[in-house]
Amino acid sequence: MNIKQVVLLLFVVLPGLSASAVSAYYLFPDWTELDKSHRNYQKIAQSPTSRERDLLMAQAAENRHRMNCFAEGIGVLLGGVIMAIGIHGLCTLPNQEKTS
């Protein structure tokens, strides 16, 4: 393994993989909270005794989780793109096998 391969692996592929993993780790709890918030918003919207203030509070909570999920999803995708760039770089390096 030559130095170019090591550099690409350490500074491009592994950081991309770790960025995707960390973003995915935080995405799934936010996703479950978004689902709960959406069900709560639907319940409040269908309730005949709900006030506008209650509906706006539930909508704000849902939007907060929706934005968090969006941001974490973008982090997963961006980490994947960075990792793919590194893998592409590894695949396109010229083969420098020593022949004796």
Automatic annotation (TrEMBL):
Listed name of the protein: Uncharacterized protein
Signal peptide residue numbers: 1-24
Keyword field: Membrane, Signal, Transmembrane, Transmembrane helix
Sequence intervals crossing the membrane: 74-93
Superkingdom, natural source: Bacteria
